[in-house]
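okkk here we go again. third time trying to get the adenosine-5'-triphosphate bound version out, last two times i messed up the smiles copy paste (missing a bracket lol). double checked this time i swear
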Amino acid sequence: MKQKVISLKGVWAGYGNNNVIEDINFSVKKGDFVGIIGPNGGGKSTLLKVILGLITPYKGEVKVMGLPPEEGREFVGWVPQESDMDRDFPIKVLDVVLMGRMGRKKLLRSYSKEDKNKASEALEMVGLQNIAQKPIGEISLGQRQRVYIARALAKDPEILLLDEPLASVDPNTSEVIYGLLKDLNESSAITIVMVTHDVGAVSSYVKSVGCLNRKLYYYDEKTLTQGMIDAAYHCPVDLIAHGVPHRVLPKINQEETKR
Ligand SMILES: Nc1ncnc2c1ncn2[C@@H]1O[C@H](COP(=O)(O)OP(=O)(O)OP(=O)(O)O)[C@@H](O)[C@H]1O
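finally!!
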């Protein structure tokens, strides 16, 4: 049986008195590619932060690589949501990727030759080695997203967590990046958990899916049922998006849609 690399048991978490996610029971096996979808404010980012140990749950247990998340995140590459950045900030693409190496040791230190090699390899993996010396503010949004993925890969992660990596990226670039993630998952056996609003991408690229709206509807299967979607969104959502038909949606069972 494949090793569980992430495991959450009876996890409740939120901010102050605002409980956001409820009774989450969820595990991810090595080599899986999990897509997490759900409505705005449903708690998707919160779930990722719990896995990273950035938020301590009110109750329940979280393990990453069999360790408490603060220790397990040593093995996790993290691609956060694109945030506003100062385009004039004088930092080069390679410097951004090198930052991924800092997470490996708690102490600040200067970069070693190995760090520099790993950063260059990561840039090569995302096809951007040719712009290593460009200022980060001068590249496109799609390239920047690939740089952030390279920063996560520079850490040599076992697990990659991505929070809507392709929000506001054009469809062609999205396809390239999803293809890259699929390849990393298949050829480098990196386990991936990706939050996305892109149901079409979920249907084409991931191996298992979950819907999160305070509660997680996840059955460790390749199929996403209309029942799961309706339960999470509390309203019918058309799964057949972006012209990608029936990849994950089995024939809708009338009984299930009524549930
Ligand atoms: N730092 C914070 N402090 C207080 N409340 C927060 C904080 N971050 C998120 N929340 C609240 O927690 C709830 C869930 O937010 P979260 O970002 O996890 O949802 P999400 O599913 O990722 O949403 P989206 O799809 O819009 O990114 C929201 O009501 C949000 O306002």
